[in-house]
TrEMBL record:
Gene3D superfamilies: MetI-like. This is ABC transporter permease. Keywords: Membrane, Transmembrane, Transmembrane helix, Transport. It comes from Prauserella muralis. The keyword DNA repair does not apply.
Amino acid sequence: MSADTLGTSSAARPGRRWSRGQLARHLVTPAALAVVLLALYLWVSGQELDSIEARVLDAGAIGDATLRHLKLTAIASLLIVAIAMPLGILLTRPRARWITPVALAAANMGQAAPALGVLVIMAMLFSIGQTVAIAALVVTAILPVLRNTIIGIQQVDRSLVEAAFGMGLTPGQVLRKIELPLAVPVMLAGLRTTIVLSVGVATVATFVNAGGLGDIIVAGIKTTRTPILLTGAVLTTVVAFALDWLAGVLEHSVRPRGL
């Protein structure tokens, strides 16, 4: 067998997590986002900024707003995972399935309600700040993870589950070794949706003094400065795409081989 044939066989062997084509496709998104950021920087640098625009678009201010936005999104997403995934698993157990429609209806109400309205109600009941903003994010973005956790486990082939029980596995072992690994792709797809939704909803956190890129967007609207408004909007979009890309890489990395 020739060296070229050996190299081809090695590159195409099914045990590899990432093929060259997959790596290339996954690198398209960060490359495109880098181009967008560079174009935004060059465009803003070429503008004659007044004192208000220069103050809002200061590198330190933009960096601080971006970090606050990422912090809000990260904390809310972690809380959603900690709440929705265990709850979704519980709702797939035989004794708790009757509660599933009620839980999904409540989560649907949270997502259907206007994010700003949820934020205002929570601010009136409690206070303003990051805690209220994170709570509002959890309420409005919990549905995708909860729903996909339930769907992911429910769609596992019942014959596999029955075979596992026939081999003597306990319900907990079946859940850990059969149901959860096979449900991972669907569950992580829900997480990706939640993360992107959280990035968008986090822009309204500015109205409860929680910071984030919403500060820049609102400043652009109030002052009718296009460079400010465009910068806030583009940065929010880039953050959403970047986090979705990272979640996609995670989804591919933990996906059971063969699926």
